Amino acid sequence: PFWNRSAGADHVFVASHDFGACFHPMEDVAMAAGIPEFLKRSILLQTFGVQGRHPCQDAEHVVLPPYVPPEVAPRELPEPEKAHRDIFAFFRGKMEVHPKNISGHFYSSRKVRTELLRLYGRNRKFHLKRKRYDGYRSEMARSLFCLCPLGWAPWSPRLVESVLLGCIPVIIADNIRLPFPGVLRWPDISLQVAERDVAGLEAVLDHVAATNMTTIQKNLWDPMKRKA
């Protein structure tokens, strides 16, 4: 009866993983399916946000950062600009689908991760690892820059983890809609690199390291930003 009273307009759905409203890991299939008609008047809380119209956003939606446990950022972590960080640029995660995968899809809807591996896989400044490792957050805490490329969706928990661990997040996901923009000035605490500019990523990071890296690190450690 509550649904019938408003046709769902006063109902809130929590979609807590990357693709939120679309419920499917393959972007093309998800976009083809879109949001069911009966949900379109409702409110969706989700971690997936893009700028502009998108079949998976065709409802009132609020973008929230994914949950990260408090123990991810121990209080004894030193301020990032004072810490010894021996990894220049870090990423650990899926970068391509095994050739035997019958779908034929690359992991990352626009092959960004595969391109990162091709360009920087043998570059000693880039710590790129494809195998799962439960202690990957300790690697983030040793890194200056943490790469946050899109996977099937533009969003993943590693963006929040990077901030909490004092590693400058490098967002490589065109048209991403970031959470809480009214509270957080994301340009102050992160870098955004266009997907088409991945080939120039090393030069971008070198420039930041030589100019305003310390300023960004101090912004990351601002208590209000970390609380947000």
Automatic annotation (TrEMBL):
**What is stated as this protein's family in its record?**
Belongs to the glycosyltransferase 47 family.
Membrane topology label: Single-pass type II membrane protein
According to the UniProt entry, its GO molecular function terms are: glycosyltransferase activity
Lineage, broadest ranks: Eukaryota, Viridiplantae, Streptophyta, Embryophyta, Tracheophyta
Pfam families from the entry?
Exostosin_GT47
Which GO CC annotations does the UniProt entry carry? Golgi membrane
Organism, by scientific name, is Aegilops tauschii subsp. strangulata (Goatgrass)
First-listed, main subcellular location of the protein, grouped into a coarse class: Golgi
Q: Which GO terms describe its biological process?
A: glucuronoxylan biosynthetic process
The protein's superkingdom reads: Eukaryota
Subcellular localization: Golgi apparatus membrane
**Which residue numbers delimit the Exostosin GT47 domain?**
1-206
State the protein's name: Exostosin GT47 domain-containing protein
Assigned keywords, A-Z: Glycosyltransferase, Golgi apparatus, Signal-anchor, Transferase, Transmembrane
